[in-house]
Amino acid sequence: WDLERALEVFDWTVGFLRRELYLNDDGLTRAIIGTIRDVDAYQLPDAKGYSSFLRYLRGISEEDRKGEREEILSTSLEDFEEFASIIEAVNGFQLL
Fold first, then answer.
1. What's the domain count of the chain?
2. Residue 20 falls within a domain, yes or no?
3. What's this model's pTM, rounded to 2 decimal places?
4. How far apart are CA 61 and CA 55, in angstroms?
5. What is the CATH number of the domain that holds 22?
6. Full residue range of the structural domain in which residue 75 is found
7. What is the pLDDT of residues 38-85, one digit of tens each?
8. Which of 17, 2, 12 is CA-nearest to residue 91?
9. Do the domain assignments include residue 96?
10. Which of its termini does the chain have fewer beta carbons within 10 Å around, N or C?
11. Does residue 4 surpass a pLDDT of 90?
């Protein structure tokens, strides 16, 4: 990917979050449940050990994982609008 393509994706993301993503409370709840399901997916013992080893190497603690779960569970519809605003602000920043 080049920088121009990355900026196009950021522009598209803002448009998607503002105009095309139609989330209501029910849709948000389903999205949160799906995300938590992915984060806490069942793993066989060998995969669980491997995942734990990778988290150890990356310095990810159980407290970090708990915090991530709490952030996911507390996501609101307003968070999507705020995220779009942040991306839009970054897109508007000119280095040259």
1. 1
2. yes
3. 0.72
4. 7
5. 3.30.830.10
6. 3-91
7. 999 999 999 999 999 999 999 999 999 999 999 999 999 899 889 989
8. 12
9. no
10. C
11. no
